[in-house]
Amino acid sequence: MTRDAVAEVALLVRKAVHSMSHHQAFQSQLDGMLELPEEDRRGLLEALADRYRRKVDTDPVRVKLLTLIALVGRGLDGLPLEEERAARLEVAARCHSFWYADRYEALAMAEITAGRPLAPAVVATVRRSAVNGYGDGDLVAFAGQLTEPVLNVGEEWAERAMADGPRRELLAYALTATAAKPSARWEKGGRALIASLGADAVREAVLSWLALVRRPRTLELDRAAHEPDVNQAFDPYNAKALRGLAQLLSFLPPHPGTVRALGALVESALRKVAGMGPRNPKVANAAVNSLARLEGEASLAELARLGTKVMYKGTAKLIDAALEARAAELGMSREEVEELAVPAHGLTEVGRAEFALGEATALLEVRGSKAVVGWRNAAGKQVKSVPAPVRRDRAEELKELKAAVKDIDKSLSAQAERLDGQFLARRRWAYGQWRERYLDHPLVGTLARRLIWTVDGTAVGFADGRLRTLTGEPLAPDAGQDATVELWHPVGREPAEVVAWRRWLERYGVTQPFKQAHREVYLLTEAERNAGSYSNRFAAHVLRQHQFNSLAAARGWRNTLRLCVDDFAPPATRELPHWGLRAEYWIEGEGHEDGVDTTESGSYLRLRTDQVRFYPIDAPHNEASTYGGEYTMRLPGGRDPVDPLPLTAIPALVLSEVLRDVDLFVGVASVGNDPTWSDGGPEGRFRAYWNAYGFGELNQSAETRRALLERLVPRLAIADRCTFEGRFLHVRGELRTYRIHLGSGNILMTPNDQYLCIVPGGSAGTAGADSGYLPFEGDRTLAIVLSKAVLLAKDSEITDPTITGQIRR
Length: 809
Hints:
The chain is of the alpha+beta class. The chain has 6 domains: 143 residues; 185 residues, no CATH class; 67 residues, no CATH class; 59 residues, no CATH class; 144 residues, no CATH class; 121 residues, no CATH class. It is built from 30 helices and 23 strands. The strands form 6 sheets. It has a 5-stranded antiparallel sheet. A 5-stranded antiparallel sheet has the order 19-20-21-22-23, covered by helices on one side. A 4-stranded antiparallel sheet has the order 3-4-5-6, with helices on one face. The termini are far apart.
């Protein structure tokens, strides 16, 4: 190759590499090269191949050389560097997608032209790249020509579906779904396809595929350290088929399995991926719309359950719209529809059902927040496991029973959350209606019978098969027939009454599904009266942002993740439509050092907290820079600013419940309650806060915890080793004495108040303390304190080296 030719190729390479990301300019150059005589084109190809072999360029440029060879050699046979191009395609097969300007599809086209089939994994990469192809028509057109395999490999559900050969037509049709709702034409074609295949066969196949959607990828993709974890996301090409399959299910007759599958698909599609967000909201929306199209109580119940779980704004809006539409059809309120939609899940009486499976009997019972199954064999004897004849001869019935247990567990969680939200919903029921929908409902009754209610102002609980007053007397038979029922709340009650109800629960062994008699009450303080329109009670805390965001969503608050960028965001807000109010919790991002204070995607790891305020629900929203600083009210259309409401004007129940939410956010998401943060976090700058929070004054929930522990600990086997002093539970072990903080669960040990780090939930042995009766569910810190106390009272028996290494040094 002459020196001039080398220089000409070098110039060509520089121009081409520079312009490949500029589609129009590069296409003009490529057209010119393709117009050259074949001899000149082959000479150019050899020159490009020679440059590649000399390894004078960086790897990205050498990749572009291979691509140039494929592009310039279009229509020619015997292109150089065949093995190298094949190897580059193998690399591409392990990628999620390629940038459109890299033109990897040219390598794939060259393989097809040469008569060599593309590996399925390469086809998958091309298709995914076309989905994200930024409108590159050539790439999209080429991907459209790749009809085999019908779905992308790498996901277990898709590979199983493709293995069901006769169902290929179903998958191909599902891929043509282009919207969250099916058009009339698409529905007509789908119904015709179902008729030809058989509705039962379609249901059986699709449900078996959807059951595998949660499984991990069968082919793991490579990704750079700074990129989102694409292996946790849906394949975007296969996601189109999932949307279509969800829509096809809505054309089938109602079936419990269909409802379960669609609900599970919604939750799976909305599972968050780090750096990416929800896996695929479009799939979730299609599943919600299909549930809304299905008739019957089961689909309505699933929508209501999802309404308590789904926090993604777009999908939550669809669920709300579906429930409101169903309520309008029935001429009821949204709350009434949700109450009526709760299924019994096969329970024939409150918390109980029996099922005959052959000669064996399964006893399904709700115990607390879980459903359990016991068995009697043909002789009527109780057995610990499923009888062999049932496993052998009743596999389908057993499968359905296990599914019912899972359904009950999910429903119990959703209904407990719904009931916990009734304090602010201002709900009242006629006595007969309440008994039917709550007290005597087969599923909801297991929760309602563990709560305190008022019947025409008389507080009652359920014990020994009857509604009973605080004194234990049964409610008079005629007392409730024309009465109004409400959920009892401790706000406004005399302290003696609240304490008496706590003792009542102990006397009858009632464990409440959430705190009610032991519920924290947040009354207006003198400092808040003096401040006037804001509360600083929960200001100046450092919270883990993503945990705070999840908690806020679960409690009905709206929040925007703070990114470390020049932008504005509103505070965390909770709208209270029944009271005409909006609560705000002011927050800001903490720190600005990339990678230290932020995730790889640029969102803050931590927040600092500020004031709690209340506004009329229709007041303009406040916002502040995501970098922090003062909040100001945004005034669209020239609206006048609206002042925050004085705290004295906020109803006591509303103030208490809102501040209880905020206390929960701080109590769970604060870096101060994390035992691994004893060094203060990045550069030790949170050490002072960690110590102040982790061993400081008790908040309201910790005070409630202390009062309960003072009654529980004397009943434990370790009672003689425990004493209470101020903020701490003191535990005398064989080797040391320990002080467990009743707010955070953090531990100091003698001598010199050395810090002892025990991480809950691991091999540290914090689980397993049998504390006996507990009056309510859900206080994780209570369980941690009790577990640590039992563990440390026998510190000489601890074998975990992460603990003994601290105690014995």
